[in-house]
Design brief:
266 residues; elongated; 4 helices; alpha/beta; 23% strand; three-stranded parallel beta sheet
Length: 266
Amino acid sequence: TLEIRAEYCDSPEELEFAEVCFPALTRLTLSCVGLCSITFTEANTPLLQDLSLSNIEGSVCPFRLALPDLRTFDAEHSMLGERAIDAGQFGLSLSRCPKLEHFKSYKFRCLGDINYCVLPSMKSMNFHRSECTTHLDILNAPQLTSISLQAAYELGDGFKLRNLPNADLATVENLIKARSEAEKKARNAATIEDNRWRDQSNVKALTKEAIRRQWIEDDDTWEITATRPEFSDYFSVESLGVTPPDPSDGFSEEILADRCHEIFEK
C-alpha cells in the first residue's frame, strides 16, 4: 500500500509515475498531488488492484490505465487534460482493466467527448457531477447492476448502454480510430468551406450566394476577413468544447461559424 496525501495548493510540483516502477504495489491512494499524467500499466504497477485519486492537479495528460488486476477505481475533485491524440482515453483505459468491478467518482471532470468501452467485470459505476463529459458508450458490461449519472448533465444523449457480447478491446480501438478519421475528414471539409467564403477575389459571387441563403440583405455586400480569427476553431463547437464566436466579432463570422459547424457535424 502506498498513500501520498499532501496539503492542497494551487500549483503543486508534478509527479510522473510512468517513470517509476512499483512491482508489488496493490493499493495506491493519491490526494492533493500534482501529476504530469495518470499512467498506471503493467509496466510500472503490474499488481495494482485499488486506485484512489482525490484533488489531483497538474497537466494530468494523458490518462492511461492498463492493469490486469485492477478491481476498484475511485476519483474525486480532479480533471483530465486531453490532446487530440488522447481522444477516447478514458473509455479505452477502463477497457484495458478487464477485472475492474467498481468505478466511483465525484466531480471527476473532462473525461472526454469520445468514450467507448467494454467492461466484462464491471458491477457498479458512479459519475456523480462529472462535468464536461459528453460521451460514454458502454458496448458490453454483462455484470453491471448499478450505474449513476447523478448531475452529470452534459452526458445527456451521449450516454449509451448496449448489449454487444462480441465487442472487445479491439472493437473499442477500432471505433476510436474510425471516429478520429471521420472527424479529420469533416474538419478538412469545413476548412475548405471556410476558405471559400474568405476568398477576397470572389466577393461578388459570394455576395450573391449569401443573399440567396438569406444571410445578408439584398443591398448588402458579403464582408469578412481573409483569415480566420484565432478563436475560430469552431468546426467542433459542441463536440470538442470550443468557445463559439462572439457576435461582437461580426455577424459574418457568426454566420460562417454556424455554416462550418453544420458541415463538420454531418
